[in-house]
Design brief:
By secondary structure, the protein is of the alpha/beta class. It contains nine helices and twelve strands.
Length: about 280
């Protein structure tokens, strides 16, 4: 989530429309040489404690049984299994995940974090995906993301849309002598989406996977506004300087080589964001 996003009347915070076949941790075998690189305290626990914020469909959300599922979840399950660990997901406010990693409560975050230079000051990232920002609007409306001064735009709080994109657009509005965009912030992406569906906001801005999925699930109520822009890497945050970063990177390289990475991404319809080579701290800005 670029920083990242429940539809009260239109959608819920659960979903039953996930993939018909899921690639889970069981599909990835432990690789001893990679597992041996895991920090001793994590290795001894047998668990990888993962901070996650839901819902951010299709990357992380709860299915009808209340189980946390999604692209990020399946991929992290496969990573953990490769490392000889079991992923232990802990729900958290999005804004509290990185502080919890810094404080040692979580080992890693798997919640569609955009890897940015600002975030790299406090944690290290292992890149695993690429996403951009994308707006959605009510079907038939004439909202232009590049000319939205004076409009209400819904976002999830602390995401890239709220922290970077819309403030920059508001500067342009001010420079042009136009009224600012009214940035309507929500704790969850589903709430932001709902605000647009219910007419409480003129548009929404979110990471492209979340926006495209919201449009798909809106039963024709929403449509894309403009094109995807500002592509940037998603990454898994870990404690600054932790050797866990190299372990995660090597495990992902292995899953790319075996084809499991592609299988998982394709299973969730997000293959357009796949990367060829993970890096540690790959932020461009």
């Amino acid at each position: 989530m670029s920083g990242t996003l429940v539809l009260s009347g239109c959608t819920t915070n659960t979903d039953t429309t996930g993939p018909t076949t899921q690639t889970t941790a069981a599909a990835a075998a432990k690789v001893d040489d990679i597992a041996n690189t895991v920090p001793d305290d994590i290795k001894a626990s047998g668990k990888l404690i993962v901070g996650v914020n839901v819902p951010f469909t299709p990357n992380e959300y709860k299915d009808s049984s209340g189980k946390i599922v999604g692209f990020d979840i399946d991929l992290m399950n496969a990573i953990a299994s490769t490392l000889g660990l079991t992923a232990d997901y802990r729900e958290s406010d999005f804004s509290k995940i990185i502080p919890a990693i810094q404080g040692g409560t979580f080992n890693v975050g798997a919640s569609s974090f955009t890897d940015t230079k600002e975030r790299e000051r406090t944690v290290d990232f292992v890149t695993y995906f690429t996403a951009g920002l994308l707006w959605a609007k009510p079907k038939g409306s004439d909202i232009d993301p590049n000319n939205a001064c004076g409009k209400k735009v819904a976002v999830q709080a602390t995401t890239q849309a709220e922290v970077d994109e819309l403030p920059a657009k508001n500067k342009a509005c001010a420079d042009a002598g136009k009224p600012p965009i009214d940035i309507v912030k929500f704790d969850g992406q589903d709430q932001a989406t709902n605000a647009v569906v219910l007419g409480q906001a003129d548009a929404m801005s979110a990471d492209s996977p979340a926006t495209l999925y919201a449009i798909k699930q809106s039963n024709g109520k929403l449509e894309q506004a403009g094109e995807i822009f500002g592509a940037a890497p998603y990454g898994w945050p870990v404690t600054k300087g932790s050797p866990l970063a190299a372990s995660l990177k090597t495990a992902l390289e292995h899953l790319i080589e075996t084809g499991d990475y592609k299988t998982i991404a394709s299973n969730w319809g997000v293959e357009a964001g796949m990367i060829d080579k993970p890096v540690i701290n790959g932020a461009a800005s």
